[in-house]
Amino acid sequence: MSSELGILVIAAASIGFVHTLMGPDHYLPFIVIAKARRWSLARTTWITLLCGLGHVGSSVLLGALGIAAGIALTRLKLTESVRGQVAAWLLTTFGLVYCLWGIRRALRNRPHTHRHLHKGGDQHAHRHVHDTRHAHPHEQPGRGGLTPWVLFLVFIFGPCEPLIPLLMWPAAARSAWGVALVAAVFGGVTIATMLAVVLLSTFGLSFVPFRRLERYSHAIAGATIFLCGLAIHLGL
Predict the structure, then answer these.
(1) Domain ranges of the chain
(2) pLDDT of 116 over the 70 cut
(3) Do 33 and 176 touch, CB atoms closer than 8 A?
(4) pTM listed for this prediction
């Protein structure tokens, strides 16, 4: 391995790590939805891994095809910019719709009291909600199954902005093997960082009591995702 390629590999690992940590949209959607939908750590892991592979893989494929076809770097950067805008709109729309659905769900399941009159004039009252999630602590097959695929679609469109111009393009001047190596290192570090942040945060939140806010968990998750998308629009 040449010294130039070695520097690119180190840069790929560093940029992948920082790029992921600095982008809350890489992990916050998984954390809040996993909490709201009570996903197991195993389910959270494979959904995060799937979306991470789609996120990195789409940019790697675009960069490889662009380099092989001799497409100018400016055109590749423009394509990535358009993909980023599409991803931001998808994330914002999904978050808003999910938040509104969560608010509606919370209002419909507001705790209320029923009074019952028995023979002899005795009365009793009990307080309950119509939300039966307590009987199903995890998502059942066929329920909420669309959410992971919506996230996957968002991450397919989401570009890895520094990958092509800062890593793949310079590596292409040396060898195809170099392109594959820096892309693999960048992708591996990015996905590993996503998984580490998501799983550590999810595990930590499992010890935090949210009983008072549990009814609003979906609304909070949707609002968080909406704000992530909005931050991308604002360039934050």
Answers:
(1) 3-88+137-215
(2) no
(3) no
(4) 0.83
